Amino acid sequence: MVEKVTRELEKMQLQEKADIKYKEWLTKKRAEEAEKKKKEKEKEKEREAELLEKRTRSEKIFKEWLQNSRNKPQPALNGYGFPHGKSSGFADRNLYPAPAYCNPIPWKPVHVPPPKEDNVLTMKKSKRPITCQPRASLPMVISEPRSNPCVGSLCRKKL
Questions:
Q1: Hey, which of 38, 44, 63, 137 has its CA 20 to 30 A from 124?
Q2: Is 113's pLDDT higher than 80?
Q3: What letter would DSSP give residue 25?
Q4: Is 158 a residue whose pLDDT tops 70?
Q5: Which portions of the sequence form the region Disordered (predicted)?
Q6: CB of 75 closer than 8 Å to CB of 85
């Protein structure tokens, strides 16, 4: 009987210790969770503050740009279909704009001299030197653009 009572008493003491340890652990965990939630709320507030600051800064920059864009001069409408800055009355509005850039130096073809062919010695299986005679090539002449159908290109013409 005495042993039985002592066992029950030990069990009760172990159960009380376990309950105390569990309660300590539970309070610790709840404190950690509360701290974690607090940190998350602080981070969220910081993000919102940054977003608000960005919005205000971007709105300010946009307003400045809007003010500056009103003062900028508009491009001249002297393009095709806008003689003297007014529309010439085309209803379809398919008008080409004025060229933005015009090269002041016109393109000129590059003169390419004809290749020079030298007497080339070639060896056959018999190892006898054979000379190759160059063909009579026609001279390269750049014709004037008025008489030349291929303007600006190199054309062969018999002299």
A1: 137
A2: yes
A3: H
A4: no
A5: 31-51
A6: no
